[in-house]
Each structure stands twice: as structure tokens, then as C-alpha cells.
């Protein structure tokens, strides 16, 4: 096949043609191509502007000033390398925040200082047209304390002297991970940029990018690097604040109940102020602020209190109270940011039948649908609400907004309408055995309609859309309403006796039911059958949906992994994402989520294990922060209300 590299050939723009192909314009002439990749490093945002006429957005990134020091050569290092043929091991001091590694016969000291500096972030400090082969002036005052600490720890560094200081640009995305994958909103365009460790990440990035372009999918689930993980909240202020926060905390611990404080309140619901007044301790979800738990007077809500691996903390008692309120009474959760798309037009139903693995709901009902890739692996999960023969609302995870919209848009036939209404509506989950009693006094809805139905109704005198579902696994409704009407409805629900609960309680409640979360329990690393979703697959339907052939083969041959629910003999910490599952001294799987279940009074983990071990009663071990804890495979049914009597009440 071959390739040609043109050095000193600046690109100046791009043009996309009607057939989706591209022309890249350069100072040395035009280059025609089928696909184009933005791999422009710290210039990626500037290059990204070229794609806006074709559906692109501002690339979410900023540029940090990073300094590292090279020491003079050290005779002892030279002698060690000549004698052993090896280099010294890499040293990282995660408390002081630096790395120290061998560079030729000396040291390379690389600090990540908390008092860091962004560059090209203000009008007074504009990005130059060309910064090739250039550096900034040394700024050693910023890193003096780190230098002194490193020299005390490694005395030969102090006595060797400094031969050179390098102060250059490093691009950062808001989470410190690169952008590798489809360019949001633009067909036949990809990104491979914003690498903070370019050489180390280069091989894997090249592999995955090639798979995206050639196969349209990657061997491994690459959501952590997918450019579509960010949506419309990543403005310049957000990128700069988060980039500096990530850089200054390069070696920080990521505790399970800790929320990073920079660049918050980018997207808030219409009742955000009320939620905070009620004690809401907030978390950010795709830029949307949601209450994680509700504090009472005297509770420690400081950031320092969250620096623990354990479940015990000021939140624990409050989460238990919130779960018990949902179990025994009625709770309300403000849940902004649900992604919602309207799909309509003649043939919309047939389009969906050919795209999703299972069946569609009848008019007036709703169900879950799953979309797989051509290997039968899980791409996404959506709630499919059917209003008419060819009129649907598709609701999906907040963080999946751009990802899932593109799945639908890229497959959409001519003549169908697909529109995004995510930001126009608020959502509240009202759930618990007394939910029907609450709505009886507030709404004119037909509360006798069963599980998985939906209807338009008035709530507190305001128009709303009620969906008879509950991710908490109790009797309940989702209340969808216009943003302007939400304060009135929310206030009435609270006044009627609903207790506000947060995302931590919801996570506990859904895990007891075995409900999966997208990009936690449901990823492209697993097939629909491995994920225990066989009941959502209709292999007997005539439509040849993506992955159908692969699923048929897998069903005949048997799955290699199986989804399980585990009861874990955990101590103060529950299983985090991707904990190793052991059997007989061998790793046999991984957890996909874990939490304490307050209704079942046990530590619960969901996960994937080798298929022969997915037998109820099988004893395994889950490794939680270095400690192996006994775990027992449970029956393939919810731990709480296994027959769904409470849910269907």
C-alpha cells in the first residue's frame, strides 16, 4: 500500500465533497482522500475549525507549559548501564508529583507542579502561527520545591548539575486522555490528537485509529478516548480549568466518592438551586449537575472528607436513609441531561427493526432496545417510546448524547426525521410504594396503566409526560416536562411528601436489581449474549440487524464469558469498576460495578466471569484495593424483588 510523508508542507484547510470524500489544501497543492484525520497535536483546535462548515465543533483542549530537566552525565549510571546492559528503573514520587528516569547516562526529572501554567489561553497570550522547534523560557521558580525534594531523595541528582531545561507545550483534554476516534458531527473524519504522553501512547493510538477507519470499530472498547465523550459544555473556560486541574493532579488518587471541583455548573437543571438548598452535594455527569446525596446540617461536605476508599463517610447514613425512603415511601430524583431524540416519518418502525437486536413496543408502550456492532458486541442501550406507528422517542444516557445520535443518524434512510431535544426537558424520577398515592392528588393521569406504559398528563397543573418505569426497581414514574414547568412540578412533589434522593442511592438501588449502566456494565468489550441480554435479542425476526450472524454463531458455540451478580464479603470498601475476579489463584473475570445494597444489606458486585463459573453458588474472590474478598455467584435474577411484584404494583 505504501505511504508518503511530506515534510515542511503546511496544511491550510479542507473541503468535503458531496460523496463524503475530502480534499486537503496545502502550500504545495491539494491532496484528495477518502478519510481525513486531525492529528495536529497542540494545534488540533485550530485545525478543528476547518471542519465546522461540515458539522464539526471546537476541539475540547488546552495547552500546558511543561518543564523537565536533564542532568549532567553521572559516572555511576554510565558504569551501571555498561555492566548490566540495562537502564535504571523509572521512579515516580506520587506525593511530591514528579517522575525521574534515566536519560542517556544522566537523569530526566519531570515535575507536574500544582501551581502550573496554561499557555495560549488568553488574548494577551495568543497561539503563534508556527511554534515548530521552539521552547519557552525557563520558569524554575514554579518547580523549585519539587526539584529540591527530588535532589534530597536521589543525592546524585543534586551533585551532577543541570545540563538543560526544556519548557514546552503539552496539549490536554479536560480529562487528560487523548482524542482518538470519529470526529463528532463530521462523516469520514477522525481525530488522533491531544496526547499528553505521545510516544508511549502512539502505538496503541495508531492501532485503534486504523481499526476505526478500516473496520468502523475497535478491538477494545475505546470510549475513554472517544472524542464523542464530550458534548456542548466544553467551552474554553472549562477546558483550561480542567486541563490545569488534571495536570496539577497527575498522580492524585481517584477516590470513589470524590468529585473534582474545577469548572463546575456548566449545565444545570431548572431546579438546581432548590436541589442545593435541600442539601444536595453535587456531581458532574456529562457536564450536568446532579445531586449525589443530600447532606443535613452538621454533615462534613468538604472535599477532604471524600479522600477515602471506604463507603463509610458522612454520606453513608444519608444514602441509607434515601434508599429506605424509596423502599418504604416515595422519593424524587432530579435527573437532568437524559439524551432524547425524536424519530418519525413513514418507515421509521421498519428502520428501527433493522437496527436494534430485539422487538419494538406497541403504540402507547415502551421497552429497552439494544444495538450491537457486526460482532454482536454492545454499542448502546436505549429506551424506545412509541407514540404512533412511525413516531418514536429514543431516550439514552446523558453521556451518550453525541455517540448515540450518530448511530441513528449514520444509519438513517432518506425521508425520516431525527431531532435532538436533550436540553429542552427536565426529568424527575418519582418512585416508591407510595408513588401512586402521591400522583393521585397531583395529577389527572390514569394511574392504573401498567408497567412500561406512557401517557401525557397534567402534574400540579402543568403539562408533563409520564413513563411508568423506575431505575430504582420500585413502583414509579419518570416525569418529563418542559424546563419552565419543572420548578412548579418539583415543588409540588416535594410538598406532597417525596424525599429527595441522589445518584449514590440510585446506584445502590439499581445494582440490587441487576440493572446495567452504559459504559460501565454495557461496553463493546462484551457481546449482547455475554451481557445477559439474550431476552432482548430476536434471532427469529426477518430483519438482518447488525451483529445478527455473529450472535447466531455465538449462541450455537456458547459464550466464553457470562454476566453475574455477586454477593461479596467486603469490608469497608465495595468493588470498584474493573476489580479482578479470582478463582484458584487465576484471574477469571472482572467486576463492572459494585456498591452496598441497603435493601438487601450486602455488598453487591456485577461482573463478567468465565462461563463455566457463572453457576449459582460458585465461590470466587473479588480483589478490592489489593484485598481478596470471598464472593458468591447469585441466581440469574434481581436480588431485590426478583419477580418484580413491587415494580409492577
CATH domain class name of the domain at 62-172: Alpha Beta
How many DSSP H or I helices?
A: 14
The class by helix and strand makeup works out as alpha+beta
User: Looking at CATH, which topology of the domain at 62-172 would you report?
Assistant: D-Amino Acid Oxidase, Chain A, domain 2
Task: Please report the distance between the alpha carbons of the first and last residues.
Answer: 63 Å
CATH superfamily of the domain at 62-172: D-Amino Acid Oxidase, subunit A, domain 2
Measured as a percent range, the helix fraction is 10-25%
Rg (C-alpha, Å): 27 Å
**Overall average residue pLDDT:** 97
Morphology call: globular
Question: Could you characterize what this model shows?
Answer:
By secondary structure, the protein is an alpha+beta fold. Among the domains are: 31-58 and 176-229, no CATH class; 62-172, D-Amino Acid Oxidase, Chain A, domain 2 (2-Layer Sandwich), CATH 3.30.9.10. It is built from 14 helices and 31 strands. Strands 5, 6, 7, 8, 9 and 10 form a six-stranded antiparallel sheet that branches. Strands 22-23-24-21-15-25 form a six-stranded mixed sheet. A six-stranded antiparallel β-barrel has the order 26-29-28-27-30-31. Strand 28 (586-597) and strand 29 (602-610) form a beta hairpin. Helix 8 (314-328) packs across helix 13 (503-512). The N and C termini lie far apart (63 Å). The model has no long low-confidence stretch (mean pLDDT 97).
